[in-house]
Structure formats: structure tokens, C-alpha cells
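Entry 14. Two folds queued back to back today. First construct below, sequence then C-alpha cells.
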Amino acid sequence: MLEPSLINETAELVSQNFSADEIDRIGGMLIKGYSSHNICGEAEHITFSSGKASRILISYMNSKRKTFDLLKLLIELDGSSLSGKPIALKGLEEYLNKLTRTGVVYDFHKRKIHHSRKDVENLVNWGALKEGKYYGFTIISLDIVGNSKLVKAHGLKKMEKVYFHLRQFITNKVYEYDGRIWSFAGDGGIIAFTAKGNEQRAVLCALDIQSSLPVFNLRPEIPIKDKIILRLGLDCGKFRFSMDTGHIVSDAINYAAHLEKSGTEPGQISISSRVKKELNAKMGKYFPNPFEFESERSFTSCL
């Protein structure tokens, strides 16, 4: 069974993409002779809105324990056709994102639905993104300042303990803002955000990481006295997604990485103008300092 809020979300997804007649055809793919009119006892000549037809469909499939069969069918209809009409489901990725957060995940490779919250946060595609499709992302590139000097001063063994605790710290912050760690190599990595409001969530995450870092440095389990200092660079853009995130080619990833490494002061955050324009005035005030980097206008924080 779906959570009550997702029942409404599912009905909305269906109603905004299909007519009442098409909804009946979808029902017929799962249950022979399906008819929304027969189910609610209405005469066939009465016209149903797509909203009413979708609510009847969801309710009926729930009662027959075929809700997840319906979800699987809807997901697989995307990119195919229904009665000769090409289907491109608007709002599918956002819906799948919400579905994943409840522990229901569609595996695009195995074409199966999994009902478990376990490891949902480890899915680099949020359980929603399709291989080879284009999506909008905001990227954070993150790096420890002076990592080589720290390794030289404390030894690799101690620093590996620091890396372990740092990754846990970063992971908790990232998932709080519905981001995903795409790569992490001890002293830094690439973090991605997608779906509605991804730019704002990425910036909030970056600010949270930097503002919480002093507390991280005070933890007794951190085996060095030197403070860990980070710098972060952010850019956003639309690019082709791959489950093999290490091989994604993107100007946004490249610019974020270059901006972080060569354009950002220790302990600060730099964002591209593309990210800045997506922020509200309150958030934008944290990035008052414009500068030119690689022939583009960027902004740095005032932390």
C-alpha cells in the first residue's frame, strides 16, 4: 500500500498525463474489462474528468492490491505509446523522487519495484533518473585545504581516520538536503542535487557544511589537532545522466571543480552566476563578492 500522500500524488500524475478514456485503457491492461463507469455505478454516457477517472483507478487498484503493478506499468509507459500516442510523462522524475523517499524504488535495470527503505540514500539516481536522459543538476565540488601538508605532518594512517569521519559528516549533511555523493576520494569529492529547488538545496547544504565544520573539528574521535578546512565550488546545468557517475561529462562538474580548486579561498564557498540567479535575496546575501573566473562571473561567500 502507498502512503496516503502518495496516493494523491499518483492520481495527479495520472490525471495530468492521460484522458479519462486513456486511464480506462491503462486499467484494462491490468484488469480485463476495467471500466471506471462500472466501478462507480455511473452510466457510460456520463463524461468523467481525468481527475475523477484517475482517483477511481488508484482506489480500485489499491483495493485489488495491484497498486505497485500500476506504478510499474506507468513508469514503463513513459517513452512508449498508448493507442498510437507517444507517451512522455510530465512530472515523473519528481514523483519517483517522492516515491523513493518512502522506501519504494523502481529498478530500471531489473524492471522491478523494491519495497524497502534500506540503502535508498545510496542510490546515485535517487531511484528516479534514467540512464542517458538529460536532467538539471547542481554540483558541489569539495576539497580539504592543504591535504598534502596534513598527510606529511600526521601520516596517512591518521589522515585516513580523518577521511572516514569527514565522509560520515559530509554524508549526513548531504542527505539532509536530498543530495547524493557521486565520488569521494578521501580529501574531497563531487556531490549532486537534482529535482525542484536543487540550486537552493545545494547552497544550503554547502553553507551547513562550512558552518558546522568547527563542531566537527572539536570531536574527540578526530585524531589530529590541526583544523580541517574545506573549500567548496558550485555550478549548475543540464546534462546527460549515467549510473556510472565517474564517467559523466559535464561543463557544470568541470566548472565547479575548477572554481573550488583555483577560485575559492580556504573556508569559503564560491558559486557560479548560474547558481546565484536561482537564489532568493536572503540566500544571495551570503555571496556578496563578485569576481571573474575562467571568463565567467562568479561569487564568493562571506563566512
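Second construct, same run, same settings:
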Amino acid sequence: MRYMSVLSGGDSKTYKNLLELDVYDDSMNISTEECLNHVAKRLGTGLRNKIKEWRSKCVTNGSRKEESLKESTLFKHSNFYRKAIKDNVPDVQKMKTAIFVLLFHTSSTDKAPVHNEFPTVLTSWRFYQSALANNEKTESHSSMKRKLLKQVLEKILITLSNNELLGRCVSGKTQNVNQSIHSVILKNCPKETLFLKDSSNWQ
């Protein structure tokens, strides 16, 4: 059995080391896949970096100003981005379309609603569409319009929706399972203790 792909967080040195070691003697190529959780974090990181860059233009983290970006807002956008990928694997084009729905979510208001691109089912993540599907009164979102946020978000989403990156997300996997296994292994085989292959210390 041979492993033909590596699931990593993008900045992992494991993949580079495997290529340098040439473990299969050039007979097979090892591909890399992206962990959805790590990819989603890049959106939050990108927005935080823009907050620092645009601080002089009234974008402040956690303030009450109209153009502010709270930590909860960054978290929500990262989750929406992750969901757009997860719900549309393995179709890269559908991923990309769903990702840019975030821009409509950011700019929609009561006076200028933009909801046509959102899911219309009862369980829609967009509160407006979910309310309509459930025959409920829609909540006001008059203060949601943030032109500056939309400008920043659009630039970041263009970078995070390129075909090469999304192509590495088609498996829709995360590193959670691997990390869980690693915790079990390290609990039984601490790094500080030397274990031989036939060690009887393994429980």
C-alpha cells in the first residue's frame, strides 16, 4: 500500500520533506490536499491584516463604528467560506459561486436587499431566506451594509477562490481525524520516551 496524497494545512513542511526524500524513487507523484479548517482560517487572517492596513480609514476591530469588524464577524465570514467549499465538493465552479455569495451577504440591507443568490430551503444559512421558507417575519438588517468590508472581502475572496487552491479542497477533508489519532499515539508513546518497534510498553 502506498499513500498518494498528503492532507496538510498549506504551510506544512511534511509535503516538502517527502518530495525531497523521494520516497517512491520518482515512480509515483505525491499530491497535496488542503485541510478545510486551515483554508478557512486564511480568510480571517486576511481580514485581520486588512484591519491593520485600513485602521486609518475607520476599520477598527471590535469598535461600534459602522465600518468596524468584530472578531465574531471575522469568525462568521470564515465559517461561511468553509461552508461554501464543504457543501459543493468536488465541483470547483460551484465552490467559487458559493464563495462569492459572501459579497451579497455583506452588502445586503433592508432598502437594497440582495438575497436571490442564497439557498431558499428551510435550513438556509441565510436568515432572510430561512425566514421566508418558514413563513416567518424577516429580521431587519439595515445596519449590515459595509462598503469598505465588501471591498476588502472581494480582494481576499479572489485570492482564496483560485482554481489551484480549490482544486486541493475537492476531498472536503480536515486534519481533525489525524490529530485525534496523533493524540492517542503520543499518549502511549511520549516523545520524551524511546520506544522500539517491538516494545511491550504499548498498551
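Quick look at the second one. The chain has two domains: 1-34, 36-187. The beta strands are 5-8, 31-34.
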